């Protein structure tokens, strides 16, 4: 402090060089700040003058020409091949008339809408509405489709008129072409225009409002691979929206290649065989590799043509599909639940063996029907019919002949008229059926799968408010009553029987490769679970199914030079007709070669008898697969780039 | 004695006029910049512009009230204000609302309050108070270090939002205040050397990824012409195409066709430069220069160190924000999101600035008349 006062005192003693006046010092420092302010604004002004005065003309041109625009580059959608390299889809150009709302002078909107009416037949009100909507949206530069799927002539005429129609453009976009008509539709599905809800959900992922995406089948389930990664380009456009030049480009990454597990040749044959048997009605067939769960053929009839939806939707044909009572747009192989009938006996049979309810030598008198007295009033008798009278049957005979009585015993037991046979009971049977994957989705890589139903007392109480009866168990034993399943579920059951208990997650896609041929999704079988049934018991069931083809109910499935094991099913459905007889579903499920199973097939016909109508189809499919001419040289089967077999 | 305690009651009309003129200039540009987004003139008028005018009214009232309040009152209050503003910044980090990936505001009664704007003024007051209290020891390293800590705390809190632009504002205002406070040149040199040594590390590591990206894009906007580079290129085209006289108010094609983004906030200068041209920009520059020089005049006339340093601090952060904001628009400075004082849309900034000018008026008006002799 003392020191400071000393300084103060000395101040008037004129020694400015040594100890400058703080006030002057502050003023000097403030002057520095004034200089900083001036310098800052001079720097800003110089750069501003450079932009506005020196280079102003250049920027004026750029702003006028403008108009810097960012456009997405839609990637080429990935292609789809069958397991042998047969190309199944390609991308073809489609023309559509679009408008860029921001490029349409407000005063000329009506005039342009009128012009488009003359050229395209689109009502002017519709056009103006779309334009107005786009103007108010936050991206008035996004192309809005006025009409798509233009034919060549219209596209040419429109092109000539474009100079009169500022803001109107012809967009050329690739659309899917399904090369094999409707043979592959239920597997591949189709692509279509993105709808507003889908767009809202996918907006951040590089989709644009006029985009296309997979709507069904593999196109939908493998959308993320087939889509590719969109690129972006920055372009300059003039006032009428013509592209002047590309300033920067970030190329699109093409979609990945999807290789199906489907064998196109077999798929085609299966379709033909099934078509003959189905007679225009609903039918389905699924062929599955016993060791991998790969689906080699999946056919649903009647089917549809994916090309109906891929470009401009063919409204008449679409309406026709919708009105068809046989529902061609529904995949009957995976999306519809049917009573499986006697092919369910694979489950009842193996469950009974495993639980010790039956052995191969368990003999039951199957005399055409059984009678069960009412619990409270024994004079009332319920009759449960077989489809025939067989006399005494052992396990092989019970399966081979598909005796209903035999399986009534195995599932429900029988304790009357001096007999005392203990069955599985509903709970154990339901447990095994669920182990076999029934009552829940298989997880196949396709859209719209149904779960089917495995009933039990709790389910019946909840659904019908009624108690479970012995009759319900009997019906369940033979795949009737409340049991429903899809063909894909049933072929999986047969595959498990054939391979000794491995339940697969079915796949129609073998692998996914990128454009360079690198495998992205490898071909690895997906196992759902191992069934809790011994190998010996599966072997017994396989032998019984072989017997069924040799001398039982499935002899219609016999072919030369191939040992087929199979099981037929004929399931009543609906109400009995005028003659008191219900319509029946026909089923056949089987595998071959019987002693060394490789391929399993399940055939379903909405109307028919298993042993008469379905069994021959299944047998012909297996026969074709094992006896067809070596198809390595099938036409068009040259492995595409990146599909080379290892 | 009586005479010495009479305030001068001086009111700097030019300072107030410059501020009000800048605010009005801003309101016009906000109107023009909102047309594209709000569709119709009436909607643009009724929403963003009316809000901005309401904020301006609140700000002017605050300015007039503070003009009457003796600025010395802020001395004892400085620590409390400072701590409160820090609490606000912490609150923002914990529970603030976010935009473009950073948390920047608190919602109070439906209005978004940007805590960092208030913190700037409170930090200036705290810093001024600290230096004024330690006038005699200003050359000591201890005072130097504590003064740095005073700005470092809010700066770090703001960096965490992350808002590097505002954080740099704190650092720069410290330089302005410290210079006038008279800290030892050697200390400043040492600090600068430290910065220089740490710069490469901070560019590589500490600086948030977005900031690095912004710098590299600023150097070459063509690298990402569709993302961040888009704004840089479009702002440049907007400004350049404005030329000498501009395209006319509300007739800027870039602005009205929505090529410019955030055109009422960070890129509002581009709107003005496009529509009002170089001349319009020079008018804006003139108003800013007037305002800043009047702030420095307050600093020069201030009775005491406390008042002088507040004036310098306020002047410094206004200058820095003007320079950075316009610099970003004209590609002189890498993209940093700071608003253009008085002009950009936003109530927190506008009200705080007008209030700060009120304090400056108070510094001018509450000088004590004294004889020249002493």
Q: Which helices and strands occur, and which strands form pairs?
A:
The complex is a heterodimer of chains A (646) and B (374).
Chain A: H1 2-11, H2 22-54, H3 56-65, E1 69-73, E2 80-81, E3 89-99, H4 109-120, H5 124-136, E4 144-150, H6 152-161, E5 168-178, H7 185-188, E6 190-193, H8 196-202, E7 212-216, H9 217-221, H10 223-226, E8 231-237, E9 243-250, E10 257-260, H11 264-278, E11 283-289, E12 295-301, H12 307-310, H13 315-323, H14 345-354, E13 364-366, E14 369-373, E15 381-385, E16 391-393, H15 395-400, H16 404-412, H17 426-435, H18 457-464, H19 470-477, H20 487-499, E17 502-504, E18 509-513, E19 519-521, E20 527-530, H21 535-551, E21 565-573, E22 583-592, E23 599-605, H22 610-627
Parallel strand pairs in A: 2-10
Antiparallel strand pairs in A: 1-8, 3-4, 3-5, 6-7, 8-9, 10-18, 11-12, 11-23, 13-16, 14-15, 17-20, 18-19, 21-22, 22-23
Helix pairs in contact in A: 4-5, 11-22, 14-17, 14-21, 16-19
Chain B: H1 13-38, H2 41-68, H3 74-95, E1 97-99, E2 102-108, E3 111-114, H4 115-133, H5 141-159, H6 164-181, H7 185-206, H8 209-219, H9 228-242, H10 253-256, H11 268-301, H12 305-329, H13 347-365
Antiparallel strand pairs in B: 1-2, 2-3
> What number of structural domains do the residues of chain B give?
1
Distance between the ends of chain A: 93 Å
Beta-strand residue fraction of chain A: 15-25%
Strand/helix succession of chain B: HHHEEEHHHHHHHHHH
Task: Report on this structure.
- The complex is a heterodimer of chains A (646) and B (374).
- Chain A is of the alpha+beta class.
- Chain A has a five-stranded antiparallel sheet with strand order 12-11-23-22-21, sandwiched between helices. Chain A has a four-stranded mixed sheet with strand order 2-10-18-19, with no helix packed on it.
- In chain A, a hairpin with a 5-residue loop joins strand 11 (283-289) and strand 12 (295-301).
- With 374 residues, chain B is mostly helical.
- Chain B contains 13 helices and three strands, in the order αααβββαααααααααα.
- In chain B, strand 1 and strand 2 form a beta hairpin.
- The two termini of chain B are 14 Å apart.
- Chains A and B meet through helix 2, helix 3 and strand 9 of A and helix 6, helix 9, helix 11 and helix 12 of B.
């Amino acid at each position: 402090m003392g020191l400071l006062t000393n300084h103060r005192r000395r101040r008037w003693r004129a020694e400015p060089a040594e100890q400058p006046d703080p006030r002057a010092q502050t003023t000097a420092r403030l002057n520095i700040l004034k200089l900083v302010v001036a310098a800052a604004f001079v720097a800003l002004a110089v750069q501003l003058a450079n932009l506005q005065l020196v280079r102003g003309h250049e920027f004026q041109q750029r702003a006028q020409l403008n108009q810097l625009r960012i456009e997405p580059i839609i990637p080429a959608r990935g292609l789809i091949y069958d397991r042998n390299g047969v190309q199944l889809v390609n991308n073809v150009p489609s023309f559509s008339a679009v408008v860029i709302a921001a490029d349409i002078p407000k005063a000329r909107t009506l005039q342009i809408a009128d012009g488009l009416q003359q050229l395209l037949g689109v009502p002017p009100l519709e056009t103006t509405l779309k334009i107005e909507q786009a103007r108010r949206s936050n991206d008035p530069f996004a192309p809005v489709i006025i009409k798509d799927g233009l034919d060549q002539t219209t596209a040419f005429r429109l092109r000539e008129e474009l100079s009169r129609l500022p803001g109107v453009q012809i967009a050329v976009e690739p659309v899917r072409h399904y090369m094999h008509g409707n043979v592959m539709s239920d597997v591949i599905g189709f692509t279509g225009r993105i709808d507003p809800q889908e767009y809202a959900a996918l907006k951040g992922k590089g989709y644009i409002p006029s985009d296309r995406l997979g709507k069904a089948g593999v196109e939908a389930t493998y959308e993320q691979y087939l889509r590719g990664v969109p690129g972006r380009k920055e372009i300059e456009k003039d006032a009428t929206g013509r592209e002047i030049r590309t300033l920067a480009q970030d190329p699109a990454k093409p979609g990945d290649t999807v290789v199906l597990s489907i064998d196109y040749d077999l798929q085609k044959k299966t379709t033909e065989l099934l078509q003959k048997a189905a007679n225009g009605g609903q039918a389905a067939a699924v062929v599955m590799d016993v060791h991998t769960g790969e689906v080699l053929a999946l056919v649903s009839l009647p089917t549809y043509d994916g090309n109906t939806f891929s470009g401009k939707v063919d409204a008449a044909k679409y309406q026709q599909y919708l009105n068809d009572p046989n529902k061609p747009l529904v995949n009957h192989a995976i999306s519809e639940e049917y009573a499986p009938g006697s092919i369910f006996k694979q489950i009842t049979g193996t469950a009974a063996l495993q639980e010790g309810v039956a052995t191969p030598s368990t003999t039951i008198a199957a005399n055409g029907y059984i009678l069960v007295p009412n619990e409270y009033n024994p004079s009332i008798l319920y009759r449960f019919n077989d489809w025939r009278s067989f006399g005494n049957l052992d396990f092989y005979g019970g399966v081979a002949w598909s005796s209903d009585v035999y399986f009534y015993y195995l599932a429900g037991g029988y304790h009357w008229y001096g007999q005392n046979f203990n069955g599985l009971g509903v709970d154990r049977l339901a447990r095994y059926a669920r182990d076999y994957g029934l009552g829940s989705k298989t997880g196949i890589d396709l859209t719209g799968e149904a779960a089917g139903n495995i009933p039990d007392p709790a389910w019946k109480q909840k659904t019908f408010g009624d108690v479970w009866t012995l009759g319900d168990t009997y019906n369940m034993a033979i795949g009737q009553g409340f049991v429903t399943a899809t063909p894909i579920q049933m072929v999986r059951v047969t595959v498990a029987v054939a391979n000794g208990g491995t339940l697969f997650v079915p796949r129609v896609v073998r692998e996914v490769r990128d454009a360079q041929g690198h495998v992205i999704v490898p071909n690895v079988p997906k196992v759902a679970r191992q069934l809790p049934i011994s190998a010996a018991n599966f072997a017994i069931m396989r032998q019984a199914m072989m017997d069924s083809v040799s001398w039982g109910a499935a002899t219609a499935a016999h072919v030369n030079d191939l040992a087929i094991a199979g099981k037929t099913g004929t399931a009543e459905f609906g109400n009995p007709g005028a003659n008191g007889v219900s319509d029946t579903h026909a089923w056949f499920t089987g595998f071959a070669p019987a002693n060394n199973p490789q391929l399993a097939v399940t055939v379903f016909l909405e109307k028919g008898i298993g042993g008469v109508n379905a069994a021959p189809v299944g047998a012909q499919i297996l026969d074709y697969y094992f006896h067809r001419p070596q198809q390595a040289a099938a036409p068009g089967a040259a492995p595409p780039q990146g599909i080379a077999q290892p | 004695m009586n005479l010495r305690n009479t305030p001068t009651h001086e009111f700097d009309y030019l300072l107030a006029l410059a501020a009000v003129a800048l605010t009005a200039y801003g309101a016009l540009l906000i109107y023009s910049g909102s047309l594209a987004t709000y569709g119709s003139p009436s909607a643009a008028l009724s929403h963003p512009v009316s809000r901005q005018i309401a904020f301006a009214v609140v700000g002017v009232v605050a300015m007039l009230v503070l003009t009457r309040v003796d600025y010395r009152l802020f001395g004892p209050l400085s620590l409390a204000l400072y701590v409160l503003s820090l609490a606000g910044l912490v609150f923002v980090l914990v529970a603030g609302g976010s935009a473009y990936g950073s948390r920047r505001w608190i919602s109070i009664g439906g209005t978004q309050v940007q805590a960092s704007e208030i913190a700037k003024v409170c930090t200036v007051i705290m810093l001024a108070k600290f230096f004024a209290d330690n006038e005699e020891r200003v050359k000591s390293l201890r005072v130097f270090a504590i003064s740095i800590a005073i700005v470092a705390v809010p700066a770090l809190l703001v960096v965490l939002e992350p808002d590097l632009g505002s954080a740099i504002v704190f650092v720069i205002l410290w330089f302005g205040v410290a210079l006038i406070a008279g800290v030892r040149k050697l200390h400043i040199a040492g600090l600068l050397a430290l910065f220089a040594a740490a710069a490469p590390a901070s560019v590589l590591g500490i600086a948030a990824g977005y900031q690095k990206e912004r710098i590299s894009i600023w150097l070459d906007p063509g690298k990402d012409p569709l993302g961040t580079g888009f704004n840089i290129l479009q702002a440049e085209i907007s400004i350049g195409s404005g030329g000498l006289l501009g395209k006319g108010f509300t007739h800027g094609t870039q602005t009205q066709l929505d090529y410019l983004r955030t055109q009422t906030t960070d890129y509002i200068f581009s709107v003005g430069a496009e529509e009002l041209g170089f001349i319009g920009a020079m008018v804006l520059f003139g108003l800013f220069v007037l305002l800043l020089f009047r702030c420095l005049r307050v600093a020069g006339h201030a009775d005491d160190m406390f008042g002088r340093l507040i004036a310098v601090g306020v002047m410094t952060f206004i200058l820095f924000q003007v320079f950075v904001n316009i610099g970003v628009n004209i590609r002189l400075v890498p993209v940093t999101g700071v608003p253009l004082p008085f002009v950009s849309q936003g109530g927190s900034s506008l009200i705080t600035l007008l209030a700060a000018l009120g304090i400056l008026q108070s510094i001018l008006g509450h000088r004590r008349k004294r004889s020249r002799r002493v």
